[in-house]
Structures are given as structure tokens and as C-alpha cells.
Amino acid sequence: MKKPAVVLMSGGLDSTTVVAIAQDEGYDVAGLSFRYGQRHEHELESAARVAEAVGIANHVIVDVNLRTFGGSALTDDIDVPKDRDAEEMGQGIPVTYVPARNTVFLSFALAWAEVLGSSDIFIGVNALDYSGYPDCRPEYIEAFERMSNLATKAGVEGSQQLTIHAPLMRLTKEDIIRRGLDLGVDYSRTHSCYDPDSEGKACGHCDSCALRLRGFAAVGIPDPARYQEGALATA
């Protein structure tokens, strides 16, 4: 039997690549997504499409409303930054950072992993093309993994030694796309935009769109995502 693994699935480019990596490594993927009050909730439709397409029978969408607290352009009435260059993205923590988001998500993943008897959680964080988010750094992932093995019944009793896998941590967006293409990922199913229109079409100008478009340009193929008309200025 394949070992179970909980994979955080946003429906975006990175997490979809991580799903492919986990499946390629022989894990039985349990997909975990969140409806957390994000303005780009269209990503959940992408997560569901990906789960169905790659045969994930156990895909759960959890409701946890971080809009209650706000504090981010993704969960509050704050403008999403647009048309920033690489230097601007590298300066400080942007307003699209959602306070404690990955800590909340990984805590739910930890709980489900213990119930499933799984010792493996996969997350698509990245320390290179990551827009400055503090909870995407390797030291954060290492610290959460240490905490996790102190925080569960299975960990204390020695029946589970949890590992948090972050296979994209040291990859550029170009590297991530190439890895996914090698594994047969269909990126047309994914959604990355922070500020899509009502039909889910990407803006082409937010940081997430910019990083994605530059990655595909570096690979030398067009991005198959749906974009708003005239929205590819950052490609």
C-alpha cells in the first residue's frame, strides 16, 4: 500500500507541482485546501479540478475565516500591489502577506496527518520567488516540524515522526515549471492571481501573476492560464 501524505493544495502553480512530486514519490495524496476569506477564492475551483484530474479521492476544503482579522490585501479592503519589479518585490514584507496563514494551514494538516496515520506533509513554499513572506522560509518550516513532533499523541508515543516536505524551497519559478512539465502537470488547470475578475481571469499585474509569467517566459512557453484582456504587460 502507498503511504498517505497530506498535501496543501491552493490550486496554484506551486502546490499543483508539489502534488505531482508527492505522487511521483509514491505517496497516496490527501489534498487539503482552505476557504479562508481570500479575495481570490477562484483558486479553490482550480484545486478541485486538479484533485479530480490527478485522481485524488480524498480532497477536503476547510472553512476558516481569516477575513475576521483582516490585515492583508488578500483578506481585507486593501489594494493588491500591481506592476512591481523584482527589486520592489524583494524589499520588505508585502501587504499580500496573510498573518499566520501557513501556521494555521500546517496546523490543520498536522491534525489530519495524525488521524490518517501519516508521517508526511507536503507544502509548496519557496524561499527564492516568494515575495518576502516570513512563513515561506526554511527556518520556519524546520521550526514547525520540530514543534509538530512535540505536539501530537502519535509523536509523543513514538508512533509517528512527522516530516514536512518543501520540495520547491530552493527552486526558481522557472525550475518549478520545468519540474512540473517533466511530471506531466497541466498548468492550464491552475490559478495563481491575487486579484482575479468575477470570471476568475487573472489580472496579469499582481506579484503572483508577475512571478508566474516570468517563469513561463524563462521556460519559453506561453502561460496557459486565463488572463483578462490586455493584462499581460508583465510577461
The oligomerization state is single chain
> Class in CATH?
Alpha Beta
Q: How many strands? A: 5
CATH superfamily: HUPs
Number of domains: 1
**Proportion of β residues?**
5-15%
CATH architecture type: 3-Layer(aba) Sandwich
Biggest sheet architecture: 5 strands, parallel
| Strand arrangement, major sheet | 3-2-1-4-5
Descriptive overview:
The protein has 235 residues and is an alpha/beta fold. It has one domain: Rossmann fold. It has 8 helices and 5 strands; from the N terminus they run βαβαβααβααβαα. The protein has helices at residues 13-24, 42-53, 86-89, 101-116, 138-151, 153-157, 173-182, 207-219; strands at 3-8, 27-35, 58-63, 120-122, 163-165. α1 (13-24) links the parallel β1 (3-8) and β2. The chain is globular, with a radius of gyration of 17 Å.
Considering the chains and any ligands shown, give keywords for the structure.
235 residues; alpha/beta; Rossmann fold; 5-stranded parallel beta sheet; 5 strands
In a few lines, what is going on in this structure?
It is built from eight helices and five strands.
